[in-house]
């Protein structure tokens, strides 16, 4: 491509703009995937991921695919033909979990909730007497809703708890161990402020013991992956597949940037930006989509005013301001916008910019 | 990490050092995966990949995982329970194909060849009267052997031909259409000179029609992926998973760098570097491992002289020269070295450097 480069303000559901440390690391010299210098970076990335996951799990690692690969890894390693998987569905990613689980041959018990509302932990936990796994999305990217994973963890009984933390990791409170998450997967391109392409993943020792021993996926077989990434730092690594070294260096830099700023500080920055955005949208007379009390700070959903062409407003924002916001999903594709304030974008300047730009776009649209 | 950065000469089996254009593109502004500016980059990447694959297949795209994910995508989309898959095995990657195919429930017919020799197309084609697929590795990374995929294509009959081009794409002659490759997967981190993390993939229309309609992998389901990557440029894209935008920008830049230099010129550069290296090693009195007439220019295998500690030599090269070469694989782990001259490293300077360094290392080892 010989065109000029364009900076976009990525205020959609992700990818977000990235931390400068994460971008800078992409340009570091490429290292071999078995080079001792690279294994130090991998160890540092895994150690940093443990902190943002809130876990001491030895098996905490970046999988070599996007968040959806993490979802697939969670299910193919946890359930097989005939196993019961209870899945809480309150948006697209819960629905996707059902589809991924179905393809393992598991018996899927789908617990539906209205989009825009959080999951009901009691109803989910009561959906089947003895499931092998119970799965739920912590932060539903499709609806902007935060659900109470800790409550589900208390009610899970003997089941393994699978949690999707794609839009919470690195920006919102997340305590895998304290909440009882047995298997967790996430993404890099949201609050962690790292380009997309890896899935931060964690699995407890107990869940690892109960895993499917010959899963249908070779690429995502955690039993094989462990030989390379290793549970014990410094032990001999065996080759599984060529690790995406450049992306892992970027993740290592991004996650350590977050830890250096301070996880609490970063979370407070996300909360402040999300609340300021939500207040500002309501002051403009717009209605928020996600239920009050369950709104994600990292990703805000807002209803498109009656008579306004959703796509035209998004195109105006992109063309005039280089601002990307997201459309809605499914039946809300044209009636909801999704505005993310994630990673380095979780700050007052982003809030002020997107509110001012949206005000102008709506005025143009005759509102 | 706050350590200083180290430049390594990556003369192993991959990752290789990368083209500067591919590294530079990693630092470009991050774009949304549905941004029209990104879709232009994706289209350009796919178009470039068609050229290095030697195909006009509309479904030619970078999968969001490494070459091993490409292998898994090839099998889960092509075979299911009970289907017969004939797999030619002359090294680790052929063996891996068998394992990946087995996990789909396919009946695997494994056709063994001695490591270090090319596949025998007639024996492979005769191994079963009516397989659904026949699979082989074009350039065996574990042994440094080139096999005749064109001959296998002529003998495949009604079977679909799956080919692994991980260590040939972008550096060696490869003509997917002319040779009759129905499904091909590759990697970015070898001759293409792009960091690892994506798998250039191609599937013919005919193979796409015969694909497994509900494959066990959701992440690698080509039927779903097509909606996003699109067979027809400019058509409406539907979201499947968040594309690894940064890596795709790097691939686009790398593959177009290769095309700008000229595919024939780049191939000649790989051939010249490989021959010069192999001549130089023999002049040093070393024995090559791969059978004469079937040696990969991109990756040379050489026997470790009797009495020489393979690992000690590799450590010496790394510590004194920042040169990485590869160990052997499997039973040849300590008795073979693998030396890659790939991508930007396929040049006289790399050959001279590695020969000189190896001579010194062997002298130190008392040879």
Automatic annotation (TrEMBL), chains A, B:
Domain Aminotransferase class V: 33-328
Residues bound to substrate: 338
Organism domain of life: Bacteria
MF GO annotations: alanine-glyoxylate transaminase activity; L-serine-pyruvate transaminase activity
Record keyword Transferase present: yes
Keywords of this entry: Aminotransferase, Pyridoxal phosphate, Transferase
Co-factor(s): pyridoxal 5'-phosphate
Transmembrane segments: none
N6-(pyridoxal phosphate)lysine carried by residues: 190
GO BP terms: glycine biosynthetic process, by transamination of glyoxylate
Family to which this protein belongs: Belongs to the class-V pyridoxal-phosphate-dependent aminotransferase family.
Protein name: Alanine--glyoxylate aminotransferase
Native source species: Arthrobacter psychrochitiniphilus
């Amino acid at each position: 491509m010989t065109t000029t480069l364009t900076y976009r303000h990525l205020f959609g559901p992700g990818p977000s703009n990235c931390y400068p440390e994460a971008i800078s690391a992409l340009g570091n010299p490429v290292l071999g995937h078995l080079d001792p210098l690279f294994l130090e970076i991998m160890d540092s990335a895994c150690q940093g991921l443990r902190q943002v996951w809130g876990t001491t799990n030895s098996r905490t690692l970046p999988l070599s695919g996007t968040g959806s690969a993490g979802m697939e890894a969670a299910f193919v390693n946890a359930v097989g033909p005939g196993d019961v998987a209870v899945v809480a569905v309150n948006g697209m990613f819960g629905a996707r979990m059902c589809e991924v689980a179905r393809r393992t041959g598991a018996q899927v018990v789908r617990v539906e909730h209205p989009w825009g509302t959080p999951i009901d932990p009691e109803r989910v936990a009561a959906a089947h007497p003895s499931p092998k796994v119970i799965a739920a999305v912590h932060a539903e990217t499709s609806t902007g809703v935060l659900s109470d994973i800790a409550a589900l963890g208390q009610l899970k009984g003997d089941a393994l708890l699978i949690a999707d933390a794609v839009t919470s990791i690195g920006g919102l409170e997340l305590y895998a161990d304290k909440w009882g998450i047995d298997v967790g997967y996430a993404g890099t391109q949201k609050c962690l402020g790292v380009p997309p392409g890896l899935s931060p993943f964690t699995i407890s020792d107990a869940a690892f013991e109960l895993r499917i021993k010959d899963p249908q996926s070779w690429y995502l077989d955690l039993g094989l992956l462990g030989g390379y990434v290793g549970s014990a730092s410094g032990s001999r690594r065996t080759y599984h597949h060529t690790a995406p070294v450049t992306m892992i260096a970027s993740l290592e830099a991004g996650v350590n940037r977050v830890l250096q700023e301070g996880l609490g500080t970063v979370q407070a920055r996300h909360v402040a930006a999300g609340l300021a955005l939500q207040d500002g949208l309501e002051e403009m007379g717009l209605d928020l989509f996600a239920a009050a009390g369950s709104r994600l700070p990292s990703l805000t959903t807002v209803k498109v005013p009656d008579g306004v062409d959703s796509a035209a407003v998004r195109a105006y924002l992109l063309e005039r301001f280089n601002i990307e916001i997201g459309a809605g999903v499914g039946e809300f594709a044209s009636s909801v916008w999704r505005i993310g304030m994630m990673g380095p974008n979780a700050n007052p300047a982003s809030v002020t910019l997107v509110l001012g730009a949206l005000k102008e776009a709506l005025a143009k649209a005759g509102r």
